[in-house]
Amino acid sequence: MSIQYQSKLFGRTRKDINAEEVSINAQLLTRAGFVEKSMSGVFTFLPLGLRVIKKIENIIREELNNLGAQELLMPSFQSKEVWSKSGRWQDKVGGIMYQFKDSSGKDLGLAPSHEEMITDLVTRQVNSYKDLPLYVYQIQNKFRDEPRAKSGLLRGREFLMKDLYSFTATAAEKETFYQSVHDAYLRIFTRMGLRSFSVEASGGAMSKKYSHEFMVITQAGEDQTVFCEHCGWAQNIEISRLKKGDKCPKCSSILKQEKTVEAGNIFDQETIYTDAFKAKYIDQTGKEQSIHMAAFGIGISRAMGTIVEASHDERGIIWPDQVTPFNVHIVVLGDEPELLTAAKKLAEKLSTELDILFDDRDLSPGQKMYDADLIGIPIQIIVGKKNAPKVEFKIRSQKEAELITMTEAIERCQKYYVKKDIR
Amino acid sequence: MSIQYQSKLFGRTRKDINAEEVSINAQLLTRAGFVEKSMSGVFTFLPLGLRVIKKIENIIREELNNLGAQELLMPSFQSKEVWSKSGRWQDKVGGIMYQFKDSSGKDLGLAPSHEEMITDLVTRQVNSYKDLPLYVYQIQNKFRDEPRAKSGLLRGREFLMKDLYSFTATAAEKETFYQSVHDAYLRIFTRMGLRSFSVEASGGAMSKKYSHEFMVITQAGEDQTVFCEHCGWAQNIEISRLKKGDKCPKCSSILKQEKTVEAGNIFDQETIYTDAFKAKYIDQTGKEQSIHMAAFGIGISRAMGTIVEASHDERGIIWPDQVTPFNVHIVVLGDEPELLTAAKKLAEKLSTELDILFDDRDLSPGQKMYDADLIGIPIQIIVGKKNAPKVEFKIRSQKEAELITMTEAIERCQKYYVKKDIR
What we know:
The structure is a homodimer.
Chain A: E1 3-5, H1 24-31, E2 35-39, E3 42-45, H2 47-66, E4 70-71, E5 77-79, H3 80-84, H4 92-95, E6 99-101, E7 107-110, H5 115-125, E8 134-143, E9 158-168, H6 171-191, E10 196-201, E11 211-217, E12 223-227, E13 234-236, E14 256-270, H7 272-276, E15 280-282, E16 288-290, E17 292-299, H8 300-310, E18 312-313, E19 316-317, E20 328-333, H9 337-350, E21 356-359, H10 365-375, E22 379-384, E23 391-395, E24 401-404, H11 406-416
C-alpha cells in the first residue's frame, strides 16, 4: 500500500467552478480534484478520480470472474460492413453512433456498444456445443453522440463501461445466467455503497426484448421508481399500476417513490444478433442451432457520478468504504517538525496495510479541514499541536471527532478496513 | 493466483490464418489465440492477449511510479479549439489525426497523443514553483490514421500507449528527469525480455527538438541500427558516421548492425507547447517563468508485437518470464480419470503462487503439444500415462524435456518464478 503526499498530488481543490456545471456530481468531483471536464460529456480523470475508477473496476471484475466470465478488450473502431448486418449502422443506433471517413475514404464508426463485434467474433470462435456457454466482458471506452450531456458523469459522450455478453446453447441456460448476473449486479452496487432496485424496462436502442434496469435512489435521477424498502420489489412508475402508499404486491409493506438513476442494465437479446450474424453451433446430435445471447452493462464513470450523487453532504463527498481513493486521510495542522515527524510515523505504520493521503500542504488549518471534508475519505486523522500526543479521529459520515492516542487510531483503522477485508 | 481450464478459454488456436497477414507477430498471435484482427491496424485482445497487455502495463506502472510519476486518464475526444493553439489541428499532426463533426456540427478529433490536452490542464492546475516538478502519465488508447498498417501490432490505427509528460521549473531539472526515464525505459524493456538500445533521433510529428528512440533488434524492423553489444552505444545508420565492423567510439569493441523496431521514444519539448498555451509558473521571486516539458511514449500493444518478433521459433511464441499470460502450462495427455485427478492436484498446488493454464481439451497428444509450443508459456508440465507418476518438465526455450516427480516439478516452478519474485 502507499502514502501520497498531498503537496505533490496532481489535481487541486478549488472553491468555484464553471457556473454552467449544474450537476452535483460534476461540481463536487471537479472542486475536490477528481475530474476535469474538457467538453460537454467528456472528462479527464485526475489521479484521485482514477483511483476510484480502478476500485469500481476491480469490484466488477471480482464479481464477474466468480461467475466464470472472461475479460477481453475490443477496439473502439467499428466497420460499416459488420454493423450493417444488424441494421444498426444505417440508423446510427438511433442517432448516437459517431460515424466518419478516414483519409482513404473508408467508413469508420466508434462503438456505442459491442454486440455486433462480439457476435461477429463468436461466429469465428464458436462451432460446437462444447464451446458453450461463453461469458465474455470488457472494461472499455464507449462513445455516444448524446444530444443532452448535462448531468456530469451520469451521461457522457465518451465514458468507461463494463459490457458483458453471454452466449448459451439454450434459452433456459441463458435465463439461469441472466439471473446470476442480476444477483451479482445487486452485490456490485452494494459494494459500491449504492442501494439498488432492479426494475423491468424496455430495451431501448440496445435491444428489442425485455430487460432489467438497476435503479439507485438520488435526487439527480431522471426516472421515478416506486419500490418496497422491505423486500426490494420495484417498478418504473411509467409502467407500474402501483404508486406511493400502496401495498407491496410481494410483501404487503407500504411502497415508496423516489427519483432514481439507472446504474446498470441487462438485456435478453434472444437470437436477434446471433441470427443476423449466422452465429450457430452444432449440437450433440450434429444439428445446427441458434446461439442465445444476453448483454449486461454497467457504466463505470457513470457509477462514480452516481455514488457522489447518492453519498455527499453540504461539505462534500462521502466515499463508501470500498470505492474510496484512499483509506485514511492524515491531516497535519501546523508545520512544527516534531508534529510532522509523529504524523509521518503514523502514516508509515498505517501504510503497510492501507492507502494513505497525507496533507502536508502549507495551508491554514481551516482550509485543510475544508478540503478533507470536500474530498471525502472515510477516515480523517487530524494531527495538531493542540491535542498532541493525542489525535482527532473522525469518521467522515459522522459529526463528532474523538480524541484518541495514535495506537488507538491505528487499531480503529485496522478494525474499519483490514478486519472486514476491505481495502 | 488462478487455474484457467483451456477447454473453457475463449480464443482457439488455429493452423491457418488470413493469407494477407504477412507480419510474424500478427500471424503467431492470431494462430495462438491472443488477438483477432478486425480491420487493418485494429485488433481485439482475447483473454490470453489481454493478460500479456496487463503484465506489460504493470511493469511500466511500477517503474514510473518509482520515479514519482502519477497516473491519470485523459479522454480520446479532443477539441479543435485546444489543438489550434499548437497549430497541430490545422495539419492534422502531419495527416494522422482523425477529425470529424458530431451531429450538432461541432468539430471533434481523436487524440494521436496528448501534449495539447495535458498542457491545457497544466495551465489550470499549476501556478507556482511549489506545484512543480510534475510527472503524469496515462495508459490509454491512441488513434492514428496511418497510411500503412501492415505490421500487425507494430503499427496500429487504434493502439494502447503509455504516455508520460514531465513539467519542470528549469531545463536542468527536465534533463535530470529525462535521464531517469531514459534509464527506466532500459529497465522496462529488459523486464519485457527485450534487449534495447537508445539512439538519438529527430522528433518527427510529435516534437521539433531532439529525442531518443529505444531500438529492439528484430528482423521485422523498419530501421537499421549500428550498435555496440558491449557498452550499449548505438546510432541509427541514417545519421551515423560509423558502420558495422568499425570500432565503438565509447569502448572500442567491434560494432554490429541489425534491423530494429522502435519500442519507445522520449522527446525534449522545451517550452514549445507550454509557451503556446501560456503555461507559466511564478518563481520564488514572484516572477513569471516558462515551464519546461518533455514527453515519453511506449506503445503497449506494439511492445507485445515486438516481444513476439524478438522471441519466437519455428514452433511458436516463447514468452519472456515477466510478460507471459500464465506461468505454467499443464498439458494432460489422455483422459484417464486418475491422470486428470493427479494433474488437477498438481495445478492446485502450483496455483497458490502461480497462474496456471490447464489443457483439459479432448484432443490428440500431438495437437496439444503443438498448441503448447505455439502459445509459448515458459514452463510446460506434461502429465501422461506413459511416464506416470513422473511428469515431463520442459522449458519452452530449451529443446530437451526432463522426467521428474511432481514434487520436483513444483520446486522447479517455485525456483523459476517465486524465488526470483517474478509473477
